[in-house]
Hints:
Layout: H1 9-15, E1 20-25, E2 28-40, E3 67-72, E4 76-83, E5 90-101, H2 103-109, H3 123-130, E6 146-149, E7 159-162, E8 176-179
Antiparallel strand pairs: 1-2, 1-6, 2-5, 2-8, 3-4, 4-5, 7-8
The chain binds a DNA duplex through residues 38, 40, 46-48, 51, 54-56, 70-76, 78, 80, 93, 95, 112, 122-125, 128, 164-168.
Amino acid sequence: MQPELSKSSVEVAQRLLGSWLVRELEGQVLVGKIVETEAYDRTDAASHSFKGKTPRTDVLFGPPGRAYVYFTYGMHYCMNVVTGKQGQGSAVLIRALEPLEGIGAMRTRRQRISKDAQLLNGPAKLCQAFGINRQLNGHDLQKSPLQVVLQPSLPTENIVQTTRVGITRDTHRLWRFYVQGSPFISRP
DNA sequence: CAGTCGATGTACT
DNA sequence: GTACATCGACTGG
Length: 188
């Protein structure tokens, strides 16, 4: 498997920047470059794993390199990469992608969007564009039809570290990371 | 621009 | 009941 994903979520969150998310969907190939991530773990009150293993969070406590997909606000999906060793309950939320390939197919699922920069610049937006839903919860991300393809690590000086978005607990942790200067992030 | 707010299903108190 | 790792439409300046 991919040993790089068995490290802590804070390490993996930075490691994943610049890597690709590749989706095969209805005969098309969609590729996005990961430009924004957030780390979550068991010690963190903002994490779904904080209260322990439940039917919903089962995948979070499984092996690294799987997709944890959850449904929220009655209409949106968000996707994480499970990290750490089996049973740790840590994961990295994918918050934004830069579209690289299959932009036409992405637009089919994001009808109202005209600008490329708004296609994948949010965790629920990228799931909509990539057709990611609960069927992919627990999916091994080394396999089709949804893969993480690691690319060389970005230099630290190109990574911005800041507070996470949209949470109400443990808000002080600097566990959000994004590619400096990217126009494809969800917010500055 | 910025700020507010409704939509809408599910997990958990 | 309440909260929710969100989005997009709408308002007012």
